[in-house]
From TrEMBL:
Gene3D superfamilies: 1.10.10.160, P-loop containing nucleotide triphosphate hydrolases. It comes from Streptomyces triculaminicus. Residues 1-25, 200-226 are annotated as: Disordered. This is UvrD-helicase domain-containing protein. Pfam families: NERD (PF08378), UvrD-helicase (PF00580). GO terms for biological process: recombinational repair. Residues 12-25 have a biased composition (Basic and acidic residues). Keywords: ATP-binding, Helicase, Hydrolase, Nucleotide-binding.
Length: 744
């Protein structure tokens, strides 16, 4: 009964909508008939656009092009869907768009595209001070008397029938007040011609309305002599569909259209060589990088490569770009660095065999033979530290000779290794390489080194006009060298985006080590946090306040950074439980208390993969829908996201829950043992005392060297800081009072 009732309500609503659209289109057609100087085809285009003006859009017709003597802009249209710079073509011959060329019959008309792009740029510049990103200003060519739907460069090409529905279906970008402000601004920048052909006063509809287009070139129904009412019937159906499509889709997020004018300036900047954008968490670095990618794609015909270290982030960022700049989305390639390198090697026919598991196993064997019996075990008996030393320091930096390693200043590594230690590390490294090669497998570092060697040996013509690396602090030196090799020092070629304070992997590098110079205006710092409510940012900064860090540009920065806050308030909840079981109950209670509606905007973030699996099981048992961050692609999904701190990099959520969040203890003497207890449901809840690294699932509790313990503690504080700064509105911090759980 209820379902039937709502279906009938929907049908009534659809009929009301249809009546409204029919009236709006009929009125627009009557008004368009008064455009005496226009051809019939142009009037039909105008009717479609005038119909939009009855739905909150503003249309400016026949405007002067500033800076030119005689050139004009056919139309500027501003509405919920953004700003459109419109050129109307009333060609006798049929338009075509193939192989990158615009044609009218057999004639090339590429100059028309160039002209439209040039005037669109003028509009972009004019709107930049209002904070409008170039992605929201779109060039549109409309063919009177034609049916057409295509794209060339970034220019949308539409026929007169397609234009109304296409614009109506655009997702909402601008509110009514902004539409007004932008249109007012454009009216000043693009002044009207005197004697513009839109009459001020309504006049009697002309007798010839509805006649076939005078150019006779139309092949579509539009030029076939339909009456206005027939046209209305035809158009109404597609307009209705488009309006319903648009209503179904949520508005485009504000940051996809508006930026701070300083951000727009970075997006549009001309850099003479490699550049870097840095800044604390949440200051809009990724937002700038995505707009920059779209902007460069709009400016060039080449492809843009956008890479990160994390494998899940490219999917999310690709979804964002498709939403904010669909016209250029297919020219921006989102990839994790390793997946890109493997594709590159395959394309170049370079044999490779990546096998993480067998490589791990090769290291374990090397450790047993060469590491455990050496001086290294006295410094840190846990092989993980030494595995990281090989991964992040030796192979990550592409070091192939001992002497280079012997004198290396090891970034972000605290333990002072004397020569005998370094000799022992080198012996371990050589043994690992020997075993790995014997097994015929490559590790992740090998993939990047092979790709770098190939890129340098056969540079060829880069398929990329530009390369953008996000979260660059997590790449290795070899990784950054590889990206640099793709575009070199070309103007606007390489953009590195990231924040040294958020480095969640050991080791590190300086850009100068990679031969990359970003001095002067090519190194830009963002300082305004747009993401985190103040309480959350303060709590997160307190965690790393005492941890000064080396940035990749070689400067040393204090942990407590100067950040301008835009978002006050927020909620930080600390929950301390007596046992792991009580802790997990508290997490479920907190999730339930905030309510089901909040779950799609919530994330439970965990220190390790093992803990992630534990909390996924917990939510599954509690009947709370969840989605693994490994699979999340940025599209709305009605489930709580669950994943590790590392998988959450670059992402954000309204509500973040960090169960068992305490960072690793700072001193070896207080290193906590692995704790295990049995919950009331009989489930074993095992929690390692520190966040295990990706290279080992075992948690190390025995630490020999104080500096190594301090380094580990610092890294785990950084990881916690990154996880905390994923929260926009609320942050839940759960912990177990260890003393209590140990005796239970
Ligand atoms: N100009 C702006 N106006 C309003 N919100 C903005 C603006 N710029 C960015 N934001 C918002 O700030 C949030 C953080 O942006 P972004 O993810 O780009 O920051 P980030 O510096 O890359 O963060 P992190 O380093 O922590 O990953 C985004 O959700 C976006 O909504």
């Amino acid at each position: 009964m209820e379902a039937g009732g709502s279906a009938s309500n929907r049908a009534q609503e659809a009929r009301r909508h249809e009546r409204e659209l029919r009236e709006q289109l009929r009125a627009a057609q009557q008004e368009a008939r008064r455009w005496e100087a226009a051809s019939e085809g142009e009037r039909k285009v105008a009717a479609q656009l005038l119909m939009l003006t009855r739905r909150g859009w503003r249309l400016l017709v026949d405007r002067r092009w500033p800076g030119t003597r005689a050139a004009n802009v056919d139309m500027l249209l501003v509405g919920p869907g953004g700003v459109f710079v419109i050129d109307v073509k009333n060609w006798r011959a049929a338009p075509g768009a193939a192989d990158g060329h615009l044609t009218a019959g057999r004639q090339r008309r590429d100059g028309e595209i160039g002209k439209l792009l040039a005037v669109t740029r003028v509009a972009e510049v004019a709107l930049a001070p209002l904070g409008l990103s170039p992605v929201a200003v779109q060039p549109l060519m409309v063919f009177a008397g034609r049916s057409f739907d295509g794209t060339l460069d970034r220019v949308r090409l539409l026929g007169e029938r397609e234009v109304g529905p296409a614009l109506l279906a655009e997702r909402t970008r601008l509110g009514a007040a902004m539409v007004c402000a932008i249109a007012d601004h454009l009216e000043v920048v693009f002044p009207a011609y005197e004697g513009s052909y839109v009459p001020e006063e309504p006049s009697v509809p002309s007798a010839d309305s509805g006649r076939p287009a005078p150019d006779g070139g139309g092949t579509s129904d539009a030029a076939s002599g339909d009456t206005a009412d027939d046209n209305a019937l035809f158009d109404i159906a597609s307009l209705c569909d488009a309006a319903m499509d648009a209503a179904r889709r949520a508005p485009v997020e504000r940051w996809m259209t508006f930026l701070h004018p300083d951000q727009v300036a970075l997006v549009r900047r001309n850099w003479s060589g490699p550049a870097r954008v840095s800044g604390p968490a949440g200051t809009g670095k990724t937002v700038v990088a995505l707009h920059r990618a779209a902007h460069l794609a709009q400016r060039t015909t080449g492809r843009i490569l956008y890479v990160t270290f994390a494998s899940n982030l490219p999917r999310v960022q690709g979804t964002f770009l498709r939403t904010m700049a669909p016209a250029v989305a297919d020219r921006v390639e989102f990839r994790s660095l390793h997946s890109w390198a493997r594709k590159f090697l395959a394309e170049r026919g370079i044999p490779h065999r990546l096998h993480g598991g067998r490589s791990e196993d090769a290291f374990s064997r090397a450790w047993v033979r060469c590491g455990r019996p050496s001086v290294l075990a006295a410094l840190d008996p846990c092989p993980r530290y030494w595995h990281e030393e090989i991964d992040c320091v030796i192979k990550g930096r592409g070091i192939t000779g001992f002497e280079e390693y012997a004198t290396l200043r090891r970034q972000r590594r605290r333990a002072a290794l004397r020569r005998p230690h370094r000799e022992a590390v080198w012996a371990l490294y050589e043994e690992y390489e020997r075993v790995r090669r014997a097994r015929g497998v490559h590790d992740f570092n090998d993939i990047l080194s092979l790709a770098l060697a190939e890129a340098r040996a056969r540079p060829g013509r880069s398929p990329y006009a530009a390369v953008i690396a996000d979260e660059v602090q997590d790449l290795t030196l070899v990784g950054v060298r590889l990206l640099h090799a793709l575009v070199g020092d070309a103007p606007n070629g390489l953009l590195l985006v990231g924040d040294g304070q958020q480095a969640v992997y050991p080791g590190g590098f300086r850009l100068s080590d990679a031969g990359i110079d970003v001095r002067g205006d090519r190194g830009q710092v963002l300082r305004t946090n747009y993401r985190n409510a103040q309480q959350i940012l303060d709590a997160a900064l307190a965690v790393v306040a005492d941890d000064a860090f080396d940035d990749i540009d070689g400067t040393r920065l204090a942990g407590l950074r100067d950040v301008d806050r835009t978002y006050h308030g927020g909620q930080v909840t600390r929950s301390v439980s007596g046992t792991p079981a009580e802790h997990d109950d508290a997490l479920l209670a907190a999730l339930r208390a905030r309510g089901e509606a909040s779950w799609p905007d919530s994330a439970v973030l965990c220190r390790s993969r093992r803990e992630t699996a534990h909390y996924q099981r917990l939510l599954a048992r509690a009947g709370i829908p969840f989605c693994s961050l490994e699979r999340y692609d940025g599209r709305p999904v009605a489930a709580v996201k669950v994943g590790s701190y590392r998988r959450a990099k670059g992402l954000e959520f309204k509500h973040v829950y960090l169960p068992d969040h305490e960072p690793a203890p700072a001193m070896p003497s207080v290193a906590a043992p692995v704790t295990a207890s049995v919950t009331s449901s009989g489930m074993s809840a095992v929690r390692p005392s520190a966040a295990p690294s990706a290279t080992s699932t075992r948690a190390c509790t025995v630490v020999g060297d104080e500096d190594i313990a301090l380094e580990r503690a610092e890294l785990s504080r950084t990881q916690l800081f990154v996880a905390m700064t994923r929260a926009r509105d609320s942050l839940w911090l759960g912990s177990v009072a260890r003393g209590l759980s140990d005796v239970s």
